[in-house]
Specification:
Helix content: under 10%
Number of domains: 1
Largest sheet: 8 strands, antiparallel
Strand order of the largest sheet: 2-3-4-5-12-9-8-7
Oligomer: single chain
Number of helices: 1
Distance between the termini: 68 Å
Length: 261
């Protein structure tokens, strides 16, 4: 993170074999991010782990691993059908509260989405009315926006740089669209909030649950992919996926029977 350059991609510092991002993140929510809405008088203002009173604003990240927010990451499962990563956020002091949490992300084979389970182990806002937050960046030049309930989709044409062009002398390639989406389960009664700070983000405000947990889904697509080649196809995919996500198959009960001759 300390090698980010002004274009938000850090392409000139990346190993070309790893490819390149297709969306500038910088200080935005990017493809997905969490936060806490602490100020009831300003419902669009959100606190985030990376941006605390002690953060290094020039680097868009925390100042150090001792006095500021720190993180840890573990691979839980890495299999042919799904992979899971656990991300922990610790020592997060926003100036308006103190928090610690873990997120478990699951990616699925053959799918264009991942799911996340968030569990706060510490949730101590100083003001009443604080709420969980989660969101994605509003794509620059957004040409497709769709929001319904706990679902939001954002897409726009995107300028892509060749990761092999270390000197940045080649022209950028503009693709027809790159899109991202977030779905927060309906059972949490998420409320959509547009966050103009941090370059503009589509977010959801979620009332804290008794066990300090909530779940969300993230999805992505672009015109150069093997599937979902248009923004409209991507939107429809998210709508269908959201419907399934909010109505998972549940086993109510089972009884074993044995046939004897």
């Amino acid at each position: 993170m300390e090698t980010l350059v002004s274009d938000g991609y850090a392409v000139t510092y990346e190993d070309a074999a790893f490819g390149s991002d297709i969306m500038s993140v910088a200080d935005s929510f990017g493809g997905a991010g969490i936060g806490v809405f602490e100020d009831a008088s300003n419902p669009a203002r959100v606190s985030r782990p990376r941006f605390t009173p002690g953060s290094n604003r020039e680097q868009n990240f925390n100042s150090n691993q001792i006095a500021d927010t720190r993180y840890s990451f573990d691979v839980v499962v890495n299999g042919p059908m799904r992979s899971m990563v656990r991300a922990r956020t610790m020592n997060w002091n926003s100036g308006g509260g103190a928090y610690e949490l873990e997120q478990v992300y699951t990616a699925y084979a053959g799918a264009s989405f991942s799911t996340a389970k968030v569990r706060f182990s510490r949730f101590a806002p100083r003001r009443a009315g604080a709420a969980f937050g989660a969101g994605i960046r509003k794509h620059v030049g957004e040409t497709l926006f769709y929001q319904e309930g706990g679902m939001v989709v954002s897409a726009a044409p995107e300028a892509i740089r060749n990761p092999d062009d270390r000197e940045a002398v080649q022209n950028e390639l503009t693709v027809a669209y790159a899109g991202s989406a977030m779905v927060v389960r309906d059972k949490y009664r998420p409320r959509y909030v547009y966050v103009p700070d941090f370059q503009g983000n589509h977010a959801f405000r979620i009332k804290p649950t008794p066990d300090w947990t909530f779940e969300y889904l993230i999805a992505a697509g672009w015109s150069e992919g093997a599937v979902l080649k248009t923004a409209e196809e991507f939107r429809d995919y998210v709508v269908t996926t959201a419907r399934e996500y909010n109505a998972p198959v549940r086993v109510g009960g089972a009884r074993m029977e044995q046939k004897t001759n």
